[in-house]
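Task 17 of the worksheet. Students: predict the tertiary structure of the chain below and write it out as structure tokens. Keep your answer in the requested format; marks are given for formatting as well as content.
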Amino acid sequence: MRKSDKVIITCAITGSLHTPTMSPYLPITPQQIIEQSVEAAEAGAAILHLHARDPIDGRPSPDPDLFMQFLPQIKQQTDAIINITTGGAPGFSEDDRLAAPLRALPEMTSLNMGSMNFGVFGLADKYPEWKHTWEKPFLEASKRFAANHNFALIERIIRELGEGHGTKFEYECYDLGHLYNVAHFAERGLIKPPFLIQGIFGVLGGIGADLENLTAMKQTADRLFGNDYYLSAFGIGRMQMRFLTMSAMLGGNVRVGLEDSLMIGRGQLARSNAEQVRKIRTILTELGMDIATPDEARAMLALKGPDRVAF
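Model answer:
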């Protein structure tokens, strides 16, 4: 693992799985996404990971026109690295997932490194009433469908965005096997280091949110990639902050955001993404760690720079 004196904070602003009923603070409209992104960057996030939502009812949307309602403004108001999803949401086609990234040609996108069960159906029973009729069926459907990230799709994303436009990737790894998928594409020469390996823990269907699993993922990545990668990791829900702290103590980086957890403390909703950024920044600073600026993160990850995006 590459060691750095600086910790990169990524903030995943809205995601696609939490729904409007779950929190009044979840950003839905382009303006809300702009405001929360700018605040998160000001709080210390070097990377902003972004999805889009229908501004009327909050459902996930792949519409490039929606992305273009907030991407230019975020770029104008911050120097943060903008990272667009290619995972999208359940029900999106392959073309849906690539529509916004191919329009925007960002410095980074996420890249899920394997197909998997992605169970969020348990959330469907936690709310007696819903703001919108789509929410409960959307969550329940995760019991019947797997998230498709097959080798052909991964290769298409790498070739069309990476080889075609110089975009780098946040390699989202929900299990140890996903690390070997990253290694497969590296061995074929389709992706080049440094790799940002984003370990994701606690999704039903993926690796569990046990700290021992974080150690196992780091050890496996060390064997596969040596000094060619940066570690980042997070646990969803209540495990968020302890996983972030452990990742940083292992020499890695961190990701917060309302995509991953709606809470700031036990039983307490986070009022913004920036609140989570400030909390982890305080923890890391108290531990004697320095926070990477966007330009420092660009240099660490060998990104193409904001002047080569299409927004």
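Marker's comment: Residues 13 and 257 are 5 Å apart (CA to CA). The chain has eleven helices and 16 strands.
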